[in-house]
Amino acid sequence: MKKVLVAALAVALAAVMAVPASAFENEFGGYFRVRAYSQSDFTGDDSGDRDYQVVDTRTRLYYTAKFSDDFKLVNKFEIDNTWGDGDLGDIGADCDGAIEVKNTYVDFNMGNYNFKLGTQGAVIARGFVFWDDFSGATITGNYGNVEVPFYWMKINEGGFADGDDTNDADKDAYAVSPVFQSGNMTVNPYFVYVTQKEKTVDGDLFEDFMAYDLGVDLDVALGNANAWFTGIYQGGSVDVNKTDVDMSSYLVAFGGDATLGNISVHGQMFHASGQDQDDPADEINAFVDILSESGSEDAQDWKGQSYYWAEIMGYGTFDPWYGSAGSPTDKISNITAFNIGASMSPMEKLTVGADLWYAMLAEDNAAGDDELGTEIDLSASYALMDNLNLDVVAAYLMAGDATGDEDPMELGAQLSLSF
Fold first, then answer.
1. CA distance 103 to 115
2. Could you tell me which residues come within 8 angstroms of residue 263 by beta carbon, excluding any fewer than 6 positions away?
3. Which of 123, 158, 179, 410 could in theory staple to 395 by disulfide, Cβ–Cβ 3.0 to 4.6 A?
């Protein structure tokens, strides 16, 4: 990590030194948070294995060298610190490699086209398909009310270290996601194509992997109300241990919000297909994350797809180490969920909210269970001063049979600053 940081800083310094000081502007910004939260019974039993109380800090520092309105170098760095854990959170505080590189890319315009080359962020399908950083290129054409971005994402660079031929483990994604605006409506269709020739994961050989997401987002503004819809079909094929496997799955989601005076109401629903226990071995019918390389089912795998929802079942405000047992957390798959909530401002600078969630598995788990439970989330947000907010969250999940016998709980507070 230290070598990566040094390289990134060297690139930024080289670009800065290549032109006179008067030829560019320095732009700085960032984000800071310190939070404390507690979670209990997230395993759905009384083992306490995932009971967790922690205080941590995150700092993000942004530096942009702006050479002109059409040319800039963007850099974003991150410092994470769990109090009492590791060198940075321990007595003495000094820690080599504590700074992470989030983004570093060149951003320039040529005519109607914008180019971003390097490590950058992107969101596709509200996060149901992708919400993360990646290394690659984005080329965006701007044509009045139509914007057409094209993405190339390098997901994995194969090599002998992978136990594969040099290029066989290369995994690449190509996506086009045009945005059409007409009056109060925004239409965003997208096509994401992912390919990999060969990869071995946990002893299983995957060959000729080809998968795609074809979908559309619709957003409509209706005066004091907004409505949205997402529909995605996922298809493809892969050879698993010399057996041809076909992929066919889907996701639908919709929601909206409305404001009435100082009260706002909102709601949403999403359904992602799952794998039936009786499905043939040569079929994948579960909606899955095709843009992540790890191939792991670990709850701590936060790469690629990311859609945060309920506080306990879906990471919510604190994105803890784990979600509740049985839930796909932010990797929306094999689930049906419903939400209704409201927020209001009883006084200046204070907003309070409440959300009710119900979720169940789209297909029964191996034990024949499907209910994840009903979750109640309460929140309060207070603006202490300009750019400085205090958020307090309390959440309780009445566990269903697919979660366990114990009811998970979460309580936390977060102080955040943006500049």
1. 15
2. 342, 343, 344
3. 410
